[in-house]
Fold:
Amino acid sequence: MCHASLCTGAPLLVYDVSNNNQVSTLVPALELYIPLETYSVRFLSQTRLVAAIKKGFAVQGGFEMVDLVTAETQGLLDPDDPSPLDLAHKKVKPITVFRVDTVFLVCYNKHAFYIDRRGIRPLNKVVLRWTQPAHAFALHQPYILAFCDRGVEVWNIETGEMVQKIQGPYHLLNTPESGEKVLGLSLLSGEITEIVFHEHASLNS
Structure:
C-alpha cells in the first residue's frame, strides 16, 4: 500500500508500508515534484495518482496524472474531447477524483462529472451540480457528500439527484473508504461528529 504526503512548493513524497516483526512503518519509495500549486492528491491505483492543480494551471481541466513507475505525467482529461473541457472551464476549481467501478468521477467546486480511462466523458453519464460551491468530498457509494459553506449535500451518483441536505458548516476530517464512517468537525460547535445520511431523508433536514 502507498501513501502520499504533499506540501505546497515542496516535493511529493510517496511511501510504502513495510511490515517487520508485526510492526508497520512508512518507508520512502519515491520523490516527485509538481511545479504548480496543488490542492490535493489521490491514488487512482497502486501505481497512479492524480493531483488537482490551482487555476492558472497549464494542465487542461486542472488534473495531472502521475505514473509512479515511470514518473511520467499527463493531463487526466482528453484534450481532444470538448465535452469534459467545457465543464472544466476557468470559473471552476478542481478538487479531487474518485474511481467508480470502471470510470472516474471528477469533482470540481461547482459540479462533478464522469470520464472513462481515456479521459473522455461518456454520453450516458450524469452531471452532478451542487447548489452551492463545495470545498471537499467524501464518496460513500452510491452517494457522494459535498461539503459546502452552509452544509453538506448528499447526492446519488447513479441518478444525479440530491437526496439530503445536512445543515451547518462542517470540515471533512477523513478520507473514508467504502462503508467507513464519514467524520466532520462542526464549525459552529467545534465538535467532531459522524456525518449521518440516508437516501430517503428530507431535503430540509
Q: What stands out?
A: Residues 1-9, 200-205 have pLDDT under 50 and may be disordered. The first strand starts at residue 2 and ends at 5.
